[in-house]
């Protein structure tokens, strides 16, 4: 029993060191943007392009050109939503996307072996479900952050309201 506990601790320390090293490599490869504001590019954009279709599912248009346009518009709205958050929260979201974009962390934490561009929707769905129900509060919080950003950004756009039967705010409230 003692050796298995020792092995468990060794594996835990090795995993923590690996994640810390991965974070350091990411910070060296992708230094924070000027002013530390959120920047949606490269790996973060690839993560969103893989996650948004899984989270929104049949809400996205089926026709390929319309689907691609809706996906890009959703990415832009997520970016705008993040830019409306306090700078410290923007940094946390940037770190989340950076972690998911980093190859070893993506494999370990999300179970996506190839890049996000090649991720199968079933892989992405399994990753999201595992984070949604994970025993670690940090991963559950990260899932909810992704969920709230994507769903909130999608339904903040008035063009999405008819699909859910929402007529919009009462005219009296707009005056």
Provide the helix percentage. Answer: 55-70%
Individual helix count: 8
Whole-number total of structural domains: 1
Mean pLDDT: 84
**Strand-and-helix sequence, N→C?**
HHHHHHHH
Radius of gyration over alpha carbons? 19 Å
Structural notes for this entry:
The chain has helices spanning 2-29, 42-56, 64-83, 87-101, 103-110, 121-132, 137-155, 171-174. The model has no long low-confidence stretch (mean pLDDT 84). It has one domain (32-161). The longest helix is centred in the N-terminal third of the chain and has 28 residues, at 2-29. The chain is mainly α and 175 residues long. Helices cover 69% and strands 0% of the residues.
Quick tags:
175 residues, mainly alpha, TAT_signal, elongated, 0% strand
Summarize it.
This protein has 175 residues and is mainly alpha-helical. The protein is built from eight helices and no strands.
Topology:
Blueprint: H1 2-29, H2 42-56, H3 64-83, H4 87-101, H5 103-110, H6 121-132, H7 137-155, H8 171-174
Helix pairs in contact: 2-3, 2-4, 2-6, 3-7
